[in-house]
Amino acid sequence: MGCGSSKPPEHKPKQLQLKKYDRASVSCPAATAMRAALLIQRWYRQYVARLEMRRRCTWNIFQSIEYSGEQDQIKLYNFFGFLMDHFTPASSERNLISHIFRESEVFQDAEWEPYFCYKSIDVPDMYTGPHLTFPLTVNIITELVEAFKHKQHLHARYVLQLLGETWRLLRILPNINEVSTFHSKEITICGDLHGQLEDLLLVFYKNGLPSVETPYVFNGDFVDRGKDSIEILLILFAFQLVYPNDVHLNRGNHEDHIVNLRYGFTKEVLGKYRVHGKKILKLLQKIFSWLPLATVIDQKVLILHGGISDTTDLKLIAKLERNRYVSALRPPKRPQALSSSDGNARFSGGDWDQYSIVGRRRVRSLTHSNPASSRRELQRRSLQNYSTRTGHNVEEELRERRRWAGLSASCERIHDLPSSDSDPDSGEVLETDAEEWKQIVDMLWSDPMSQDGCIPNEVRGGGCYWGPDITEDVLNRHNLRLLIRSHECKQDGYEFCHNRRVLTIFSASNYYEVGSNRGAYIRLGPDLNPHVVQYQASRSTRELTLRQSVGRTERSALRALREQVFAHKSDLTSAYEEFDPEHTGVISMKHWAVATETVLQLGLPWRVLREQLVGDSTQDGIINYNDWFRELALMDPNTELAHTGLLETMYRHHSNLETIFRIIDTDHSGLISFEEFRQTWKLLSSHLKMEISDKAISDLALSIDFNKDGSIDINEFMEAFRLVDCSHAQILISMNGGTSPDPPQPSSPS
Predict the structure, then answer these.
(1) CA proximity to 727, closest of 611, 559, 477
(2) Signal peptide: which range, if any (predicted)?
């Protein structure tokens, strides 16, 4: 009972309780943090997924509009070809366009020598640009690159001299270049550059200038769209002259003078070389026809611009006369009577139905004429064919076209094609020529698809879509391992498909809009495993966040899409009214999407785009299309002209009209007379199967003859009808001085 016998109190339970409390206090915040992290991760994944969906939708808009433009170009050229084949040699409209076909004739080399004459051209003392001495050296080319980097132009004398040397080199090269990795560690392959000098300079900065140690293969489409196409050509030609065994250039579908009329290269050359531009363009036509068609590395890797088909035969390609195909859009003709069978049967548009413009439709491919195929079978997009057969024979159809064109009765009679003695543009497409032409078109224009088979490329209008089974067959048949091609812009600059046996490479970054895509190039070593290097040429793009980049590109795509909507306003209104018989001005979102796709046929997810396009004009799944159209504001001081129907035709067929202007402007002066202006519109009206009165055309010509000198400046005319995007996503049409002038251009080096 004493104090000494008593035991101290037990503290272990308290210590244990304290430890449990500490563990609980620690575990509770950890669990909360984990849940928060999971919520943030889930939110971020949804955020990125939404951005990716917006990015892909934006991409589809750009690509659909691009391909519809290519299709328009081919349809227009098909129309010209039909005129050449069926109208009499003396007909006025045939004479307007015949020279673009004569330029495709094969001349003897001696006949081309005068075009390369540069000695009579003097370089003035005031010229401050780069100078060339031949034979070229690396130092001279380095100075040339630096001069182009600082926006200087090369004098026309040096341009002609450089082109002449390039032509002489290309003539001795084979159709398919053979390259080996034995003498170098790696070969660099670049895709489309499309006149974007900044991308080429960035590739050189990252990868090194072309040399024996750093060989290059440039896979076509050097020109068009961008503003520095001629500079890119001159740089590549110069390096090829210095390193003919280490710099290889393949031809692309844009190395074609007909395509250049539409996509800017012709205009660029004439703008930079006003005096000698016509001669430079003539020489480039010849040079383009001599560019090799493909390159093979170590007998295992095939590099070509577009693609292949189920009939691709490299042995046939290796022995054909590539220089005969100045334009790949039309087979060359022998100077004989035209056969009615083979040549035009392969040409998309041998039947007038192929030219019918009913909304927007997909035409047959240039070389593949399977009428049963449809792009609805492809997962990439769903397209419908709205063509209607008229039942007219050729003679009846031509008479009707002439009536629409307002041609005189004296020109209305259709004759059988004359012999080559009376018409230099006539001739015969032999079976062998047609087969060779088909091989070239497929190489330059085709695209891969995910399904097996080979079907017409109805979206572009040329070449084919080929599947994994065709890739397997062609590569195995030629004992190849990999196909590297370009021709298609990819968001990441490259893309594998067909079990990684096809690799697409695209080197023009920011192609559609700043931030729209990366550029890329390939390094290929002796192991033949491609190593892809990506880049973004614009520094401002590299500083943008993902959200900023997607938003900027999306706004540009929607602006382009609104222009398409405005250009088809009348057709869209008619299509909407079919679902609105009471003319209430409102239709369901479902009907709006169906009608919009029926008219525009761009294969886009219209329901997804509804919020960005229509905005406040929709409520509870109902769209007020009248309010929507009112958002497309029209400012037109000449109200009478708006009722003629010319305005909407102008906007819808803006590029076709400019192409015809460039063709008619044979002296490349940039000016056309009122009569040539009238003939241009008559050609377009015949192509579109519509009537345009002479008075409407005259009123239009007078309204845009700003200095009243009786001639029309082509650039001013196209600028006068430019669609201008303004705030609140409206489209304004600025006419008669309402547009901002073009920025000043550097002085021309003649």
Answers:
(1) 559
(2) none
By annotation, the residues acting in catalysis are: 254
Contact 470, 480 (CB under 8 A): no
Q: Which residue has the tokens 């006949």?
A: 111
pLDDT in tens, 221-231: 999 999 999 99
Distance CA 379, CA 390 (A): 31
pLDDT band at 288 (very low <50, low <70, confident <90, very high): very high
Mark out the alpha helices in 329-430 (DSSP H runs).
342-345, 394-405
> Dihedral, CA atoms, 197, 203, 206, 211, nearest 10 degrees?
-110
Contacts of residue 511, defined as CB under 8 A and 6 or more positions apart, other chains included, come to 192, 194, 196, 225, 489, 517
Task: Supply angle C-alpha 462, 468, 473, rounded to 5.
Answer: 95
Does 308 or 727 have the greater pLDDT score? 308
Q: Which helix (H) or strand (E) holds 548?
A: helix 546-567
Q: Which residues neighbour 166 within 8 Å (Cβ) at sequence distance 6 or greater?
A: 237, 240, 241, 287
pLDDT at residue 422, as a whole number: 38
Please answer whether residues 440 and 325 qualify as being in contact, where contact means their C-beta atoms are separated by less than 8 angstroms. yes
Which residue bears the tokens 């790949």?
Answer: 328
Tell me which residue of 353, 348, 288 sits closest to 322, measured CA to CA.
288
Assigned token pair, 611: 């919020």
Question: Mean pLDDT across the stretch 695-712?
Answer: 72
Q: Does residue 96 carry a pLDDT above 70? A: no
Greatest alpha-carbon span in the chain: 144
3-class state of residue 421 by DSSP:
coil
Q: For the purposes of burial, counting CB atoms within 10 Å of the CB of 693, is it exposed (0-12), middle (13-18) or buried (19 or more)?
A: middle
